[in-house]
Design a protein that fits this description.
By secondary structure, the protein is mainly α. About 75% of the residues lie in helices and about 5% in strands. Among the domains are: about 240 residues, no CATH class; about 50 residues.
Length: about 575
């Protein structure tokens, strides 16, 4: 009963704040308001510690979405984590996670951003290792250490901000955008954002973080941890436009999108496929951000949060019912056993693909049409559209494996849709995955974007999606015998399942050579010459000296008498001379 009450109370609080913040965001958006609040925490003599907060329509809207998804995730956790004896601790960790994200969203100051940033990193580590086993520990360590690189970059940026006399970057970012110091601060902020949003070469931690409980994955991969980097760069966007930073980020975002799309087509773990789709969408957000469209990136960030949280909730319900099996090859014919869950999964999948009039369509279609309209090089153009095709491809592959065919588990099973608490949570997100895109489109873009393209470019997005869907069906259904049996296919699939060997490079690649060097130095120095000439030799010298001293102490009477005789002889000799 206690578990239910703590979940329900948190759900009510978060939902109330979410609705309030959404109303505030509409008010601020319509009236074009920005509130900058300074709270004087403490003053010692003439020095004061001031906490600063930035409230505008963007921060209010993002907080509203984070709290809405968090409320539904906490409500969902009540049933999903029912058998866990420490569910209260789990709920408190999720609340701490959300509060860290709130701190990051409303901070225009690098110090307070670091508080939220580090809070996210620390609590995410606690949540990834929540199921205590070796795999979780390894995944948690990879997550924490990858994010530490970004934390260090932020700390260096804080040091560089001292050139301006304040850490409130929002005051200087526009005036000083051509300054070298501000360029370096922008570069460091970009590195921090790349680690948090798992861009190449820091991508390996994101699929590994799937070791966390599924409700945490729904929260992390939709609106909190991985979107923190994108949100930071939305605030720093002025530094990316028409600069080398923007060009570099465009390439990295495009490659991340492409790599994640290809890897998801070779993956069989349900949660990892959805994680890789998150990585692909993060690459899309980063690349459109690099082109100078922060509002579009923010629009896609919000719509993506809705259907990605729904996807993870559906995946959690399926895994929960299938006795913790995550392999999609075991999940045939789920539509007959779990019609509501599979309907939600399909809607979320179609929204991810950009199906017309679902949430993802409004943002993805707008982004791709803007790409067609801008002065874009051929390589980036290829990455955008090919990756969009791959998104549809792995979504159709996932739908094919999980919804059609025959159940590949035991015929005696208890698959059902009777998890009412989880179903209610999914219903809230299902509604938003359908209407959320159009609602945000009407709110955020009061004047319609005029995108005038020739008909063949206008239909290019639709054509790419159809080709991707057909490809997904073919690679799932048709037995491509000669291709599947060739050695090249296995090498290719291994390379892509391992995300271009990035997890190997991030773990063994970093650890192997320092450990080898350490072993050789220990063998040569600690157990070698330094030991012989240093510690051991000094020990033998002291030991021998103490043995002589002990001998002298044990024979003191004889020695004193002999010394007396010697002194007498010496005195006699001196007197005679």
């Amino acid at each position: 009963m206690m578990n239910f009450s703590i979940c329900f109370v948190n759900f009510l609080i978060f939902m109330t704040f979410s609705i309030s913040f959404f109303i505030f965001s509409i008010y601020f958006l319509l009236n074009d308001l920005v509130y900058f609040i300074e709270w004087d925490l403490i003053m010692i003599q003439s020095s004061s510690i001031v906490m600063t907060f930035l409230f505008d329509w963007m921060s209010f809207m993002f907080m509203s979405f984070v709290l809405f998804i968090s409320a539904l995730v906490i409500f969902y956790s009540k049933e999903y984590m029912m058998e866990d004896v420490n569910i209260n601790r789990f709920i408190l960790l999720v609340v701490m996670f959300v509060l860290s994200m709130m701190m990051l969203i409303i901070s225009p100051n690098l110090i307070s951003i670091l508080l939220g940033w580090d809070g996210l990193g620390l609590v995410s580590y606690c949540l990834v290792i929540y199921f205590q086993n070796v795999k979780s520990y390894n995944a948690g360590m990879l997550t924490a250490l990858s994010n530490r690189i970004g934390d260090v970059a932020l700390l260096i940026a804080i040091a560089w901000m001292l050139n301006y006399g304040s850490w409130n970057y929002i005051f200087y970012i526009e005036m000083m955008k051509n300054d070298l110091s501000m360029f370096l601060i922008g570069m460091l902020a970009m590195i921090a954002a790349m680690t948090k949003s798992a861009q190449i070469p820091f991508s390996s931690w994101l699929p590994a973080a799937m070791a966390a409980p599924t409700p945490v994955s729904a929260l992390v991969h939709s609106s909190t941890l991985v979107t923190a980097g994108v949100y930071l760069l939305i605030r720093f966007n002025i530094l990316l436009v028409d600069s080398q930073l923007g060009t570099f980020l465009l390439l990295i975002g495009g490659l991340t999108m492409f790599m994640a799309g290809v890897a998801a087509n070779f993956e069989f773990d349900l949660k990892k496929i959805i994680a890789l789709s998150t990585l692909s969408q993060l690459g899309l957000m980063m690349s459109i951000l690099a082109m100078g469209f922060p509002k579009l990136a923010f629009f896609h960030l919000l719509t993506h949060a809705l259907f990605k949280a729904l996807l993870f909730m559906c995946a959690g319900a399926i895994i929960h019912n299938m006795k913790n099996s995550q392999d999609i090859r075991d999940m045939g014919g789920l539509v007959y056993f779990m019609p509501f869950t599979t309907s939600c999964l399909n809607v979320a999948n179609l929204a991810l693909c950009g199906m017309p009039f679902l949430a993802g369509f409004y943002s993805k279609d707008l982004i791709l049409e803007i790409v067609l309209l801008t002065n874009m090089n051929l390589f980036s153009f290829f990455l955008y559209f090919f990756s969009t095709g791959l998104t549809v491809c792995y979504s159709f592959r996932l739908s094919y494996y999980s919804l059609t065919g025959d159940m590949n588990q035991s015929s005696l099973n208890c698959l059902n849709d009777e998890s009412w608490t989880m179903s209610k949570s999914m219903t809230g997100l299902l509604l938003m995955a359908i209407i959320g895109g159009s609602m945000l489109n009407w709110l955020m873009f009061s004047s319609v974007y005029m995108i005038c393209l020739p008909s063949y470019l206008k239909f290019l997005t639709l054509f790419v999606c159809i080709v991707g869907g057909v490809s997904g069906y073919l690679i799932s259904n048709v037995n491509l015998y000669f291709f599947n049996k060739s050695l090249n296919y296995y090498l290719f699939s291994f390379m892509n399942m391992s995300m271009w060997f990035m997890p190997i490079l991030s773990t063994i690649g970093i650890i192997k050579y320092p450990l080898t060097l350490g072993f050789k130095s220990m063998k040569s120095f600690d157990h070698g010459w330094s030991e012989f000439l240093g510690g051991q030799n000094f020990y033998y010298f002291i030991k021998n000296f103490s043995i002589i001293n002990q001998f002298l102490q044990n024979n003191n009477l004889k020695i004193y008498l002999m010394m007396f005789v010697f002194w007498v002889f010496i005195l006699v000799a001196l007197m005679l001379s």
